[in-house]
Amino acid sequence: MSESLYTAGDTPASSTPETPIPTVGDVIITAVDGTVSALKWYRPAVAPTNLASLPLVLYNATSQVELARVVPGTLAAGWNTIAITPVVVTAGTRLLVGVYAERYSYTSAGHATDRVVGNLTSPAGGNDPVGNGRFRTGADGYPNVGSPGSNNYWTDLVFDATPVTTPVSTTLTGKWKVYGGVQSELTGKWHVLLGPVDPLEVDAALLEAQRRQTQALIANDPTSLQLVPRSRVSTATGGWEYQEQTPRALQVVKMSLLNHDQRPTVTVAGVERVIDYHLIGPWNMTIEVGDLWAASDGTKWEVLGFSEGWGYMTKAFLGRHVPRTARP
């Protein structure tokens, strides 16, 4: 989300003409890595006489290096936002947006206190090494003097924080996961994670929201189960069979019944199997195809595969093995 220090409703107290023409501006500090995509300035109601050639300039306030310059040619009275070639900055960068204008807006003591909006801070005059706002008499260049009255000269910028990413990983070879709502952050709709470390990354805030959504769904209708992993081994007759391994730890999930006239099928080892339920589990669930668990009535549930996430963290296909003595 784009951030600025001021909105359309924020306005200066005064404006004044001055010759020779000065450069005025304000210091802005970024709290995180990101990109500056535009510069902003509040033009007074009476246009500066040098409006046609007036520049807006972005400086590094520490090194005094010019980072971007734009000459709009015309500006309306009030707030103006002018796009620039995006400038990448790191957390803690002290920036200065300056304007070389014969007439400029100002508010006396406008920097008496820090102004903090999201990831942007315009420091109080006393909290800046030089002072805020800044002034340069009679020249188009870096404003190197702090105004004695900590004037606000109503320059601003548009900042977009670099998304924080969280590596997506799994210890389950072949486990399918999809992160609903962030497909544009990935390379497609389906992803198979092939090992303990996977290079895919997603936005941390979206990932956390998805995990909370899944946990809330499970908490509304929980089922506790203990999955038993199985290995396929060869038999003496040349075939194969499943052998049960050590049960996994107890886990809590949600089981979602499918409509019986809409039950899909999957093919497992060449045998068509009917999917009776979906299992929805947390992001760090331990589960693999072939896992089995038994209900108290003798019904056994088998993990047949993994499906598209639909916004949840783990979603598995389940099939039932109903005892002959029980009604399905």
Overall, the morphology is rod-shaped
Helix content: under 10%
Instruction: Indicate the structural class.
Output: mainly beta
Strand content: 35-45%
Number of strands: 28
Instruction: Could you tell me the CATH topology label of the largest domain.
Output: Jelly Rolls
Q: Which stretches are low in confidence, meaning pLDDT under 50 for 5 or more residues running?
A: 165-201
Would you list the SSEs in sequence order as H and E? EEEEEEEEEEEEEEEEEEHEEEEEEEEEE
Query: Mean pLDDT, as a whole number?
Result: 81
Largest sheet: 8 strands, antiparallel
Termini Cα gap: 52 Å
Q: How would you describe this protein?
A:
With 328 residues, the chain is mainly beta. The protein has 2 domains: 2-161, Jelly Rolls, CATH 2.60.120; 165-321, no CATH class. 5% of the residues lie in helices and 42% in strands. The protein has 1 helix and 28 strands. It has one helix spanning 204-220; strands spanning 2-3, 14-17, 23-30, 34-43, 56-60, 66-70, 78-89, 94-100, 103-106, 115-117, 120-122, 134-136, 145-146, 155-161, 165-167, 175-177, 191-193, 201-203, 223-225, 230-234, 240-244, 251-257, 265-268, 271-274, 277-281, 292-294, 300-306, 314-321. The strands form 8 sheets. Strands 3, 5, 6, 8, 10, 11, 12 and 13 form an 8-stranded antiparallel β-sheet that branches. The longest helix has 17 residues, at 204-220. It is rod-shaped. Mean pLDDT is 81; it is low at 165-201.
